[in-house]
Amino acid sequence: MRKSKFLSVLTATTLALTLAVPTVMPLELTTGVVKAVEVTTTAPSQKIEGRCGDNAIYSYDEATRTLTISGTGAMWNGTNYSRLGNVDKIVIGKGITVIGEDAFSPFIVGSAEISDTVTTIKSNAFHYLDSITIPKTVRTVETDAFYSVGKVVVEGDMNNFQYGA
pTM here? Predict the structure, then answer.
């Protein structure tokens, strides 16, 4: 009786001590000295995705606060991004040809990158940007496509840029 009680207490103590010690403790052997290695874990970044064109999707990365448009063809006018948080950067990927009207007007954004497949930027597409570069492939920019933009660099000509563009 005494022996089984002793074994029970010993088992319970061993279990308690095992659970109290961190379960993962990687070790590094360097020049014969064993030392602990610091382990850092991060939560996976949260992405929100949706459609913004017949063949275009948006993806928002909460960790980097980047809104990326990918796919092919034209973006729809006035896509609703109501579930997104603050956006620091917009990236228009290869394959997108038209940036829709009011596409990004709800956001105050640091910068936007436009791929060289874009040919048209519709009215009120961007509001409150710090900077943007318009690639030479862009042939048409509609009225007020850029509102309150700090720096606009145009790589091509401005022959088909409308008033306030």
Answer: 0.70
Is residue 164 within 8 Å of residue 149, measured between CB atoms?
no
Q: What tens-digit pLDDT sequence spans the chain (165 residues)?
A: 566 666 566 666 665 555 554 444 444 445 555 544 444 444 555 888 999 999 999 999 999 999 999 999 999 998 887 778 889 999 999 999 999 999 998 888 999 999 999 999 999 999 888 989 999 999 999 999 988 888 889 998 888 788 766
Radius of gyration in angstroms for the set of CA atoms belonging to the chain, rounded to a whole number: 27
> How far apart are the C-alpha atoms of 96 and 165, rounded to whole Å?
20
